[in-house]
Design goal:
The complex is a heterodimer of chains A (139) and B (763). Chain A is mainly alpha-helical and 139 residues long. Helices cover 73% and strands 9% of the residues of chain A. In chain A, strands 1-2 form a two-stranded antiparallel ribbon. In chain A, strand 1 and strand 2 form a beta hairpin. In chain A, helix 1 runs antiparallel to helix 2, helix 2 packs parallel to helix 5 and helix 4 packs antiparallel against helix 5. Among the domains of chain B are: 390 residues, no CATH class; 79 residues, no CATH class; 59 residues, no CATH class. Chain B contains 32 helices and two strands. A two-stranded antiparallel sheet of chain B has the order 1-2. In chain B, helix 15 packs antiparallel against helix 16 and helix 27 packs antiparallel against helix 28. Chain B is elongated. Classes of the chains: A mainly alpha (139), B mainly alpha (763).
């Protein structure tokens, strides 16, 4: 049933969406974006894949089960909080270090970024879990 | 160091299943080392404590803003308990490694047991009331997990739930008492409570009742004792450890710990002494009516818990000293007796005393340990139990109130406990040719080590009480709040107390001869009578609770989405609308609205109107989409780009989900009958008005952008971010985001479950 046009265009659009999603995640601390929006973006990329192809192929492409992504996301959030607890003194306290990255100069890396990655994973997992289940009802 | 040793036990609990899988059987011995390590790390502070009477304090911050910290005090009372918890704990781990050898979940068993050991050690060390409360509840939780170990049996699950509800309910009452205590004294540290201030306060009686509710439920006092015999569903190592030697004494510990703060009043003496005495007699009477070894021991534990409570209630120096020694003696002999009962069960396949006879020849070591522990339990010389009973009689004889009643009750209970001792320690091993469903062999080392060490300790400390050193005295000092050195002697000379002891022993043996042939009839009578005990009240209350839950679930959870929406919307209207109405009238101005915003508002209104009249579901989705996009544009106008991005993504994904579930929705009705849509419209209008007023309110309440300026100023300086929305989400209010992410995932799991249920039903 899915159109051929959609099947041809989907991979390109997905690639773009994924790039934009990661971009939104990483720049979120300074410019509009962040883990929540990033997660929704990448979830929409895979939703597109579901619409263009079918659920089993999307699950194969995803490799990891959405509910596991949710768990991983929450664990990352807890981990980022625990780092603050152990090294900073209180749970979820933000800690920052600057790391020299070739080509980018000094880049600040902190536990809030890790926190955002956790939000990202949790959001993707949650949205995809619902969308994949809903799609499975039709097949 | 002490605190870290305790925390390492919790870490051990986390790693136990993995370690057990990797190491196999020796893991049990490794875990036995953890509690010993806690004890060892307390040792450096012991000389100062015993010689100079100086308690050791340390603390780590936890939630400083609430006055909650990991504050630890090591005084004589803590040390006595810590020694029992860690010493017996180590033996239990060794015992369990054999007893549950064939259970595939042994690793998890170690984890629960370590969780208990850690929280119990924390409980007796805690100086902060909230730290104590958390440990207290953790012991209840680990006890729940351990009682329900054989969770496939309904009785085990029921017993676990009973224990959790009774002790947990008491724990909550105790927390309320603690909060009142903190309010009265202004301190959260137990060692800084001022007893005089508390006793003079009008809140004294409420505090006393609430704290006692916690102590009495945990330590199985009348009328809450019924959970303890039920808890015998747990594997025997658990019964020996939690339900006789340590956890059930937490209530007694609490009474002792708070004695300087709450004790020495008429109310205290009457309630604590009275309830203790009643429990002592009830437990002892019920113990002799039972046939199951473990239930006999459980009821006799109830009786001893009553003795300890009664002694703390009397509150004289003699009574407190007696309580300390009795506590130690009981933990030693009862731990040993439980383990030998478990060994009998393990080796013969039954715990029914009427079916066991003359087994000493087959298991000499176990029999020796049981007999020694039994002599101590009967209070016969030269074991520690004898000394503790002498002290008990001395204390009761010198009691300032209710002397005659207490003395009669104490002698009667002690005589009945002699019967119990003979029944569990003599009867299965001697008296005729061996009889058992399966003739046993001597148990292996891991099974006799624990009972032997405990029984030998009873003997050693009974013959040479001076080897306990100043420890009981230091504990009595901590309970009494003033120096109370204690010197124990084996031989007091011929005194009234010695006469009472002899009389008790003779009466006990006589009673045993009278009762031993009538076990069955006693058991039946007790079972019939027991049906009218507090168990009945509990069971009725529990069934009532379930009925109430069923009724209100049927009312609230109709399964219709529109009902849920209605409840949610109306609740919001009432909760938000009421305070709003009170603040009416307020002024606001609509002058600074510009043309693009007005145009968008027009689009939204038009789309909303269309949505109510659309002929098809797809059209409704399209109009709702238009509303969403317009709202996004409003965000853009106010340069809230983060919100705009999120809004458009949510809109897009909503459409995707909608398309996917479209076929599965019920038939679309474009216009409901008037009796449906008129009430709906009224609710919608009220809800819309409430939200509108709320927004107008919030824009007038904070005319100055204080918050935004704060975040703009602090955002980059303190959180390294220029996107304020993001900084708020991941740093300033990260805790909220953590909660939201969790809720999000929980909601996802809920959707998953619903869809799965549907798929299954369809299949």
């Amino acid at each position: 049933m899915p159109s051929v046009i959609l099947r041809v265009v989907a991979p390109v659009l997905m690639l773009l969406l994924i790039i934009v999603s990661i971009y939104a995640l990483l720049r979120g601390h300074h410019e509009p974006g962040g883990g929540f929006v990033g997660g929704l973006l990448i979830a929409s990329a895979f939703s597109l894949h579901v619409l263009a192809y079918d659920v089993p192929s999307t699950r194969r492409l995803l490799r990891i089960a959405p509910h596991e992504l949710m768990g991983i996301g929450l664990s990352i959030i807890l981990l980022s909080g625990a780092i603050g607890l152990v090294a900073g003194g209180s749970f979820l306290e933000g800690l920052w270090v600057t790391v020299p990255v070739p080509g980018l100069g000094e880049v600040a890396v902190g536990t809030p970024v890790l926190f955002d990655v956790g939000v990202y994973a949790a959001v993707v997992g949650m949205v995809l879990m619902i969308i994949l289940m809903a799609a499975e009802m039709n097949s | 160091m002490l605190l870290w040793a305790v925390l390492s036990v919790f870490l051990g609990a986390l790693l136990a299943p993995i370690l057990h899988r990797v190491l196999g059987r020796p893991a049990g011995w490794l875990f036995a080392a953890l509690p010993l390590d806690v004890l060892a790390s307390a040792m450096p502070f012991v000389p100062r404590l015993l010689l100079e009477g100086e308690a050791y304090h340390t603390s780590l911050p936890w939630i400083p803003s609430l006055g909650v910290e990991f504050a630890v005090t090591l005084d004589g009372l803590s040390l006595v308990f810590l020694a029992l918890i860690c010493g017996i704990g180590a033996l239990i781990f060794v015992y369990a490694s054999k007893y549950l050898q064939s259970d595939g979940r042994l690793g998890r068993f170690y984890a629960y047991l370590l969780l208990f050991t850690g929280s119990m050690a924390g409980l007796v060390l805690a100086d902060n009331v909230f730290f104590l409360f958390v440990c207290w509840e953790l012991t209840s939780v680990s006890s729940f997990l351990l009682i329900a170990w054989d969770h496939e049996r309904a009785e085990a699950r029921k017993a676990a739930l009973t224990a959790l509800l009774v002790t947990g309910g008491g724990g909550l009452a105790m927390l309320a008492g603690f909060v009142l205590l903190v309010l009265v004294t202004g301190e959260t540290q137990i060692s800084r409570f001022s007893g005089d201030a508390v006793r003079a306060s009008p809140l004294y009686l409420p505090i006393l009742i609430l704290v006692l509710a916690g102590a009495f439920t945990k330590s199985a006092q009348v009328p809450f004792f019924f959970w303890l015999p039920r808890a015998m569903e747990a594997p025997t190592p658990v019964s020996a450890y939690l339900h006789s030697a340590t956890m059930v004494k937490a209530g007694v510990y609490l009474l002792a710990r708070l004695h300087p703060t709450l004790g020495s009043t008429r109310e205290w003496t009457l309630v604590v002494g009275g309830v203790g005495a009643a429990t002592m007699v009830t437990g002892a009477v019920l113990a002799v009516t039972q046939k199951d070894l473990k239930r006999i021991l459980a009821y006799s534990t109830v009786s001893v818990l009553g003795i300890l409570t009664m002694l703390l209630g009397i509150g004289t120096r003699a009574a407190i000293s007696a309580a300390v020694v009795y506590l130690v003696a009981h933990s030693l002999y009862k731990g040993a007796l439980f383990m030998t009962a478990g060994t009998l069960d393990h080796e013969t396949g039954t715990r029914d005393v009427t079916r066991l006879r003359g087994l000493a020849r087959h298991m000499p070591i176990t029999a020796t340990a049981a007999v020694l522990a039994g002599i101590s339990s009967a209070g016969a010389p030269p074991l520690l139990g004898f000394l503790s009973k002498e002290l008990l009689y001395e204390a009761v004889l010198a009691s300032p109130t209710m002397r005659t009643i207490l003395l009669v009750a104490a002698v009667l209970s002690s005589a009945l406990l002699v019967v119990v001792s003979v029944t569990v320690a003599y009867r299965p091993f001697f008296g005729g040719s061996p009889a058992a469903p399966k003739l046993p062999h001597e148990a292996p080392l891991s099974l006799w080590l624990g009972p032997s060490v405990l029984a030998a300790s009873s003997l050693v400390f009974g013959v040479a009480p001076q080897w306990l050193g100043d420890l009981p005295g230091a504990a009595a000092t901590a309970i009494l709040g003033r120096p109370a050195p204690l010197e124990m002697k084996v031989w007091h000379g011929i005194t009234p107390v010695l006469g009472l002891s002899v009389a008790t022993l003779l009466a006990g043996v006589g009673l045993f001869r009278v009762l031993s042939g009538r076990q069955e009839r006693l058991f039946d009578a007790a079972t019939r009578l027991g049906a009218w005990g507090p168990t009945r009240v509990y069971d009725a209350a529990f069934a009532g609770l379930l009925r109430l839950a069923e009724w209100q679930t049927k009312r609230l959870q109709t399964g219709h989405l529109r009902h849920y929406l209605l409840v949610t919307v109306l609740t919001t209207v009432v909760l938000v609308g009421t305070p709003l109405l009170r603040s009416l009238p307020f002024s606001f101005s609509l002058l600074d609205i510009e043309l693009p915003e007005l145009a968008l508002a027009g689009v939204i209104l038009a789309a909303a109107a269309m949505a109510t009249r659309s002929p098809s579901r797809l059209a409704v989705v399209a109009t709702l989409g238009a509303i969403g996009i317009s709202i996004m544009l409003i965000y853009v106008i106010f340069s809230a780009l983060d919100l705009a991005l999120t809004q458009i993504m949510v809109e897009a994904l909503t459409v995707v989900i909608f398309v996917l579930v479209l076929h599965h929705l019920p038939r679309f009705v474009s216009r409901s009958p008037a009796r449906v849509w008129v009430p709906d419209a009224i609710v919608s209008v009220i809800f819309g008005a409430t939200v509108t007023f709320l927004i107008l309110m919030s824009s007038t309440l904070y005319p100055e952008p204080i918050l935004s300026e704060f975040f703009v100023a602090k955002g980059y300086a303190e959180a390294h971010g220029r996107n304020i929305v993001n900084v708020i989400l991941v740093d300033f209010r990260a805790m909220d985001t953590l909660g939201e992410a969790t809720v999000l995932c929980a909601a996802g799991i809920g959707v998953h479950a619903l869809l799965q249920a549907r798929t299954r039903k369809g299949a």
